[in-house]
Amino acid sequence: MRWQALLFDLDGTLVDTAPDLAGAVQDLARERNLAVPTFSNLRKMASHGAPGLLGAAFGVAPNDPEYAQMRFDFLRLYRARTHRNSPLFPGILEILEILQYKRIPWAIVTNKSEELTRELLAVLALPYSPAVLVGGDTTAEPKPSPLPVRFALDHLGIAAEYALLLGDDRRDIEAAHAAGCTAWAARWGYWQESDPVDAWGADTVLREPQELRLRLLTS
């Protein structure tokens, strides 16, 4: 099947943002004279944003009294890092080149805020831009709700059965299927051993971006 649109998650799928996200959490720990969590423990939570990262690092939940201020400080420190260690995953640029050549539109559907996503894309300075960008605050609900996926499809004018969503979290798969899209899982992302990729119900699991590149070339 020749896909008419590809929708990508951002963190852990297109871009390796874990170094800067984890780095900001470590900066926060140093700023507050707390034990600095290891990168390996933080990386697997990178797709879960501030709630997942702060929970893993400091055991705080969004309903805890100190959470709001910690989240504010975390985002301040994250912005201060200016995405300096958040590159595209190897092979992603080649995928975007193929999509451009085949005139297949692509979108970003992420739970990262739209503002932070645009800041990251500005730093990356990609030669090709997504046809639509849907952040975690663009619609009334983030993934796993299907609303962000439907928003992207409506903007693209593509029926769900002709669209593919690729992501590295169970929420991506659930959102895609709820919207009627095919859902593929990116094993190179930030999933946790307690919730393995093969248990998400994805239509296909890709081990590396090269697999998607080859499928696009032969479709």
Query: Which shape, going by the Cα principal axes?
Result: globular
Supply the CATH superfamily name of the largest domain: HAD superfamily/HAD-like
The percentage of residues in β strands lies in 5-15%
Report strand order across the widest sheet.
3-2-1-4-5-6
Low-pLDDT sequence parts: none
What attributes does this structure have?
alpha/beta; globular; 219 residues; 2 domains; 6 strands; six-stranded parallel beta sheet; Rossmann fold
Describe the structure.
- There is one protein chain.
- The N and C termini lie close together (7 Å).
- This protein is an alpha/beta fold and 219 residues long.
- α1 (18-31) crosses α3 (49-58).
- The longest helix has 14 residues, at 18-31.
- The protein is built from nine helices and six strands, in the order βαααααβαβαβαββα.
- It has two domains: 5-16 and 87-218, Rossmann fold (3-Layer(aba) Sandwich); 18-80.
- It has helices at 18-31, 39-43, 49-58, 67-80, 92-102, 114-124, 147-156, 170-179, 209-218; strands spanning 5-8, 106-109, 132-134, 163-167, 182-186, 204-206.
- β4 (163-167), α8 (170-179) and β5 (182-186) form a beta-alpha-beta unit.
- A six-stranded parallel sheet has the order 3-2-1-4-5-6, sandwiched between helices.
Give me a quick take on this structure.
With 219 residues, the protein is α/β, with parallel strands linked by helices. Helix content is 43%, strand content 11%.
